[in-house]
Specification:
By secondary structure, the protein is mostly beta strands. The protein has one domain: Immunoglobulin-like. Helix content is 9%, strand content 43%. The chain has one helix and ten strands; from the N terminus they run H-E-E-E-E-E-E-E-E-E-E. It is globular, with a radius of gyration of 17 Å.
């Protein structure tokens, strides 16, 4: 029975397309740096963004923009001496007048939830427009990020993770 259940879960994952994007550089151990050139109607941006958000040192290495999605390769480290909560996979981005949410069906190895002191994590977040909307790749000049808040176990002091990256 267990084998049947495991096989069923694996089959559903394959059908839904739950595979982690591996063609985006994260700047961490799960990186794809230097492996890919931009495809037609795709924009690759070497973001090299770094900012400390009180408890977490966050880095965005590469952004890949296509008409149907934005993939963001990133890494972070809990630089505090305590466990914090951070849910970057529940965030969203804004491009022009369009908000894109994280696609929950696309797996990522980015740690989400409780993060122990000193833990490093890297992975790719995939943001998709709603319905049939398409991204005008050539006209994307900036991306506004809202990845929620980071807070310690005692909720004593939260820090919003909001920033903007210019796209050239």
């Amino acid at each position: 029975m267990k084998k049947l259940l495991i096989s069923l879960i694996a089959a559903v994952a394959l059908l839904v397309g739950c595979t982690e994007p591996t063609d985006v550089a994260t700047g961490g151990s799960n990186t794809a740096e230097g492996q890919n050139q931009p495809a037609e109607n795709e924009k690759r941006v070497d973001a090299n963004f770094n900012e400390k958000f009180k408890y977490v040192d966050l880095n965005v290495k590469e952004i890949v923009i296509t008409p149907t999605e934005v993939k963001v390769g990133m890494n972070y480290e809990n630089i505090s001496n305590q466990k914090v909560s951070f849910y970057p996979d529940q965030g969203h981005i804004v491009i022009g007048d369009m908000q894109l949410d994280v696609d929950f069906l696309t797996q990522t190895s980015l740690q989400s939830g409780e993060v122990s002191a000193g833990v490093k994590s890297d992975g790719v977040l995939v943001f998709k427009p709603k319905g049939e909307k398409q991204i005008d790749v050539d006209n994307v000049t900036s991306i506004k990020f809202d990845l929620g808040e980071i807070y310690p176990d005692d909720y004593s002091s939260t820090k919003k993770v909001e920033f903007e990256i210019s796209i050239k």
